Structures
1.
Amino acid sequence: MKEINTGDFMAADPDVQIIDVREADEITAGMIEDAVHIPAGEVLQRLDELDKSRRVIAVCHGGGRSGRVAQALTELGYDADTLVGGMSNWAAEGMPMVAPE
């Protein structure tokens, strides 16, 4: 597991899986396009929604929860990373967001 910044994120393989591990009330502020919402506490029970052959980038509000999720996924054999600073940093840098579905 490694931490990536927004520049690395934007340059990531287009086949990357983005999981937003924030709680439902947190995603109302916006999500990264194509991210899948899986709250941190549900990730291990919803592994069937992730493709182990594709890189995973976990995102939360500030990076703490997503770091723990990425570490757990790495220990299970996934290629998983976390976004430094989470969505608060993403928003501060003016990066694009979409409304949750």
2.
Amino acid sequence: MELTPRLQDVLSIIKNRGEINVKDLALELKVSQKTAKGYVRELSRLGLIESDEIGNIKIRSNEENREEEIYKLVQIHESEINSLKKEINELREELMKIKRKNKV
């Protein structure tokens, strides 16, 4: 995923500060708070930042990103496994039909 230069700037500011609120971010970027909130919303949607209960924004920890990635992978693989199980059961049924047919 490639970020726009502006979102890269926002991310850089957050990294350098460690934690920042939207008002201070807007001041540093020289934009309105509404615009800063838009940047924050987009970076949050991408899973790169998070905000606490009082609105401070910080970089999302790699551990949390990794846990989310693993969870998504598990979901994908569970779906694939269930699909394969269904296919195996269908093949078993087909095999049983063939065995019965050959016994007659």
